[in-house]
Amino acid sequence: MSSGSESRSDAPSLLETRGLVKEFGGLVATDDVSIDVKRGERVSVIGPNGAGKSTLINLITRRLDPTAGDIVFKGDSIVNLKPHQVVQRGISKSFQTASIFPDLTVMENAEIAALAAENGEFGFNFLTHRDKLTSVHELAENTLESVGLLSRAGTTAADLPYGDKRRLEIGIALAAEPDLLLMDEPTAGMSPEETQATVDLIEEVKEELGLTFVLVEHDMEIVFSVSDRIVVLNRGRVIAEGTPDEIRGNPDVQEAYLGGVEL
């Protein structure tokens, strides 16, 4: 890993936000936010409640329209795309609360995600192509294997333990075969054991798939352990960014995020 930072600095930009502004009436949720995520990089976005973290993620995934600014992914602006088109371009998101189909099996959840990713908006004519159905099933199997749930493929999703539901939710995001995975509080509500298993999963995904990800997470221990770089938001603005060591010792971050307490 000694040359990792050098190789990342030379890597092409995968995602750029340029002067992103989002206003809700008189409230400015993001204020001139510009970040640059290199291919293969692990970036965490942190900040106090109301800092604009979720708004930023929703702008990138096109669930919100920016008031001003641009979002560039793989060299092209995506501000005019719909959310499903962004997924097809290679951006996938796992949500803060598990977004699964509880009455379907684990395998069926993964297959639906793979089907939607390949076909965009659901089209029933797609179901007539047996070769495509086969490829979707294989992708779903591979995805479940990557998140350690293949042995539970026939289990109804509602019957999974909470930690496994979150793992399935990450698997659903991975089934889209994204170039960029956005994770919003992936360990929220987990026990310490489930949290560690999820951190291990994130590390495995990074190493095995070479995936680029942006993580929103409140647990600083997780942030410092998995991140190459950290972006700090406060009141909608970027107040700092750097390596975990740089952020840990930044007095502005300590003041804004923890009231002056050292990280």
Automatic annotation (TrEMBL):
Gene Ontology molecular function, alphabetical: ATP binding; ATP hydrolysis activity; L-isoleucine transmembrane transporter activity; L-phenylalanine transmembrane transporter activity; L-valine transmembrane transporter activity
Entry-linked CDD domains: ABC_Mj1267_LivG_branched
Keyword GTP-binding in record: no
CC annotations in GO: plasma membrane
Alphabetical keyword list: Amino-acid transport, ATP-binding, Nucleotide-binding, Transport
All residue ranges annotated as the ABC transporter domain in the record: 15-260
Gene3D superfamilies, per database record: P-loop containing nucleotide triphosphate hydrolases
A GO BP annotation: L-isoleucine import across plasma membrane
Recorded superkingdom: Archaea
Keyword ATP-binding: yes
SMART domains named in the record: AAA
Purpose of the protein: Probable component of a branched-chain amino-acid transport system.
Family per similarity comment: Belongs to the ABC transporter superfamily.
Protein name: Probable branched-chain amino acid transport ATP-binding protein LivG
